[in-house]
Amino acid sequence: MAHEEIVDRYSRFARTAMTGRPGDDPASSDDASFEEGCFGVAGYDDTAALPDGALRASLGCGDPVAVADLHEGDVVLDLGSGGGIDVLLSARRVGPTGKVYGLDASPDMLSLARDNAAQAGVTNTEFLHGTIEHVPLPGRTVDVVISNCVINLSDDKAATLAEAFRVLRPGGRFGVSDVVTDDSVPDQDLRRRTETRIGCTAGSLTVGEYRTLLLDAGFTGITITPTADHGDGVHSAIVKAVKPPVAPGFEIRPMRAEDAGQVLSVYQRGLDTGHASFETTAPSWETFSSARLGNLRYVVADTRTDQVVAWVAASRVSARPVYAGVVEHSIYVHPGYGSRGLGRALLDAFVAASEDAGIWTIQSGVFPENTASLALHRAAGFRVIGTRERVGRHHGVWRDVLMIERRSPAV
To answer: What are the C-alpha distances in Å from 112 to residues 10, 52, 60, 126?
Structure first.
């Protein structure tokens, strides 16, 4: 179903909900795919004091507010806010010092949601017209992103998750209800029929695809928990993740090709200290990139200038299947940005992302003289497992290398 058809479909639901007549709600309409599908109000525990219009227009497959861990003063964004039920519930949680944005592509839904907010006497909300693939908010604006059975409707889910990451502040949380599919579903026709029946007209992501797209966007701490079985490998689920925390004024995000010059500059500054590597000159970007995995690459960027001040990346240890969960990593922090906790925040994010990706061992080699790096890695759970004595000459001096590794307790 095209984007325009989805907007028209939900606009019809909104107009139906606006009538206010008993029985006039989307769940009792003649739209069979909805009637047999999403939970609507049944997915909520507490709907007391909510306007009837918000309840009639409830089209979700769960209650993301119940799992979003909202706090007083939080700023929240609801992707695909519909009639506003999750916005109103979130507004209660965050209180008068917080704020909740509702984003929807249907003008009729926005009108309904604004009316519902007015009836509820809620003033800490704002409803925005736009798409979840192009959120009309600046970056690092909100503390929490929620959504209720909407991301599966997007025809560009990668863009939607990247936008959720962009608008979140460092340390921000992603907590949504959505529809997912088992990674292995033998009968794809049955899956598609079930998705259509429950209203997932653009198709749902498998659990593995969802995890990969969240990782690609930059999220860590990913959990995907099924909450209801719709048959044929299709489930409602709670999806949670975190944007890596870091010191104020900085952001941890995936490394981009346009970061090449700055990444290599930080690399060279590290090499110039004489204690980072046997290498003395940073390689070309092509050499750097080809030697490292395409994922598990992150930078710390100054949010005022977008200058890259630190980076981490991983390389495969071996192509043998037995080593599929083992990587070697490198981490470099610009010497002018030390003592701010950036290295620790970046390494913690890398470790979390590695575990999300199924990595069970991270290893590296460090010069014994590089005491700062050794302290950083020990704090992140690495241990020294041995010494390679006089392994190579560096500036005419034979040097030892301490071998360090971290074994994941989770993978």
So the answer is: 11, 11, 16, 13
Strand partners, 179: 236
Distance set, CA 33 to CA 26, 37, 62, 201, 227 (Å)? 11, 6, 17, 9, 20
Of 106, 75, 105, the closest CA to residue 90 belongs to 75
Q: Which helix (H) or strand (E) holds 14?
A: helix 3-18
- For 319, what's the count of Cα atoms within 13 Å in the CB-facing half-sphere? 1
> How far is C-alpha 38 from the chain's CA centre?
24
The pLDDT assigned to 198 comes to 55
Q: Report the SS3 class of residue 319.
A: coil
- The amino acid present at 220, given as its one-letter code, is T
Of the candidates 380, 405, 370, 402, which has an alpha carbon nearest to the alpha carbon of residue 276? 370
Rounded distance between C-alpha atoms, residue 199 and residue 155, angstroms: 14
Amino acid at 222: I
| Per-residue model confidence (pLDDT) at position 403 | 98
Maximum average pLDDT range among 54-68, 173-187, 190-204, 208-222: 208-222
316 CB contacts (<8 Å, ≥6 apart)? Answer: 293, 323, 327, 328
pLDDT value at residue 187: 56
**Cβ–Cβ < 8 Å for 233, 189:** no
Residues 305-316 have a mean pLDDT of 97
Which residues, 6+ apart, have CB-to-CB distance to 411 below 8 Å? 325, 355, 358, 359, 360
What digits encode the pLDDT tens for the residues 323-353? 999 999 999 999 999 889 999 999 999 999 9
Cα separation, 373 vs 391, whole angstroms = 19
Q: List, in order, residues 6 or more apart from 51 with CB less than 8 Å away.
A: 88, 115, 116, 119, 120
What is the per-residue pLDDT across 191-217, written as a single tens digit (0 to 9) for each?
566 556 555 555 789 999 999 999 999
Q: What is the pLDDT of residue 203?
A: 74
* Distances 189 to 192, 193, 194, 196, 247 between C-alpha atoms, Å: 5, 6, 9, 11, 48
